[in-house]
Amino acid sequence: MTTCAQAIKNWEAANGVAAEDADYVKLYCQMPPIAKMDNALISLKNCERLALSTNNIDRMISLAGMSKLKILSLGRNLIKKIERLEDVASTLEEIWLSYNQINSLDGLAGCTNLTTLYISNNQIKAWNELDKLAGLANLRDVLFVGNPIYDDMPKEQARIEVLKRLPQVAKIDGDMVKPTERELATGISAT
To answer: Which residues of the chain register pLDDT less than 70?
Structure first.
């Protein structure tokens, strides 16, 4: 397995830049894959976008020191739980967690500037999990397709259910929310 420190060194060699000075660090699809996030990541003090997708990461760690992080990409890993985002909660705008094994939306409530949550193809089984995101006033773009919550209803009905719980969103599963969908979700006709 590749460690984060090794992946960072490889990235620096390939890009000719010190990772601690970079605003976008791509550590995705490592061969062999990264199995664990580790403290080498906290050296990325200027990083605004960190890509760790397509590895074998099973657990999130604190990202203390990454005070500029805006986009965290952890899709296509083995993550089961959203956790330890407290140190980046005030700066994080987008988190990409699709294709993992996540069954709860705990751990996101403190991410007050979150605009984008991609969490498709996970194990979200209960609609009330979305209620945990209701306090995220800036959340505009969500991706839930491929989760068990969608299994027993048509796509159109699932979109309305998302809107009932997250009226602030403007885009669901890659498609902009239509005024008619808002009306159906609120039960209030615009006419």
So the answer is: 189-191
